[in-house]
Amino acid sequence: MPAAIFVIGAGPQIANAVATLFVKQAGFSVGLSSRSATNLERYKSLLPEGTKVATAVADANDPASCVRALEHLKSTLGPPSAILYNASSLSLGKKPILEYKPEDMEKHLRTSAVSGFTVLQWGVNNVVKDEEGRSALLVTGGGLSFQPRDGLSGLAAGKASLLNICKAFRVECPQIHVATVIVKGFVDKGDPYYASSVIAEEYWKLYAQKEDEWVFEVVH
């Protein structure tokens, strides 16, 4: 059975580029999860022809649904060697911080931090090494974790929390490669440096590292 990568927060940009690169580099099978079954079929079609793919609907605002999705993907493809947590609360929209209600901030934190924590915890207990002895739990971070922008305080808070959750896993679970790619620009908006395919290379480099070479954060 080929090694598998599971993607929570599937999409047509970074998530698709990472999954595609893992397929091309090492023949990975791919488990995709997002909120929409219709979108999952579209994302599935973007992968290289012949890729073994499984899908599962999950909403990152509901951490339990992420676990159900992971268990479904595992039952279909076997345990993963890589997991990418790529979910974002950007779809919740922009709002001035003085207009936030507590429940608005809770939604952002559930999507980024709580579900991210839940996926990483599941990954620590389920990830397996591939034939080359490699495995990794990979997370898409954002520059907002360093410096918020107007109207995006919820997203910034979630990304900052998620970054520190990743660090906590590295402290308490040093046997697992938990790595974050912190993307500080607008993806696929014309700047080739921020093209999905270029950013995806960062994830593969992290995955391919030997244990004594592990890097835990990359700022791109």
Automatic annotation (TrEMBL):
Tell me which InterPro entries the record gives. Answer: NAD(P)-bd_dom_sf, SDR_fam
Q: Which SUPFAM superfamilies match?
A: NAD(P)-binding Rossmann-fold domains (SSF51735)
Q: Which domain of life is it from?
A: Eukaryota
Pfam families hit by this protein:
adh_short
Q: What is this protein called?
A: Short-chain dehydrogenase/reductase SDR
Species of origin reads Marasmius oreades
The record lists the lineage as: Eukaryota, Fungi, Dikarya, Basidiomycota, Agaricomycotina
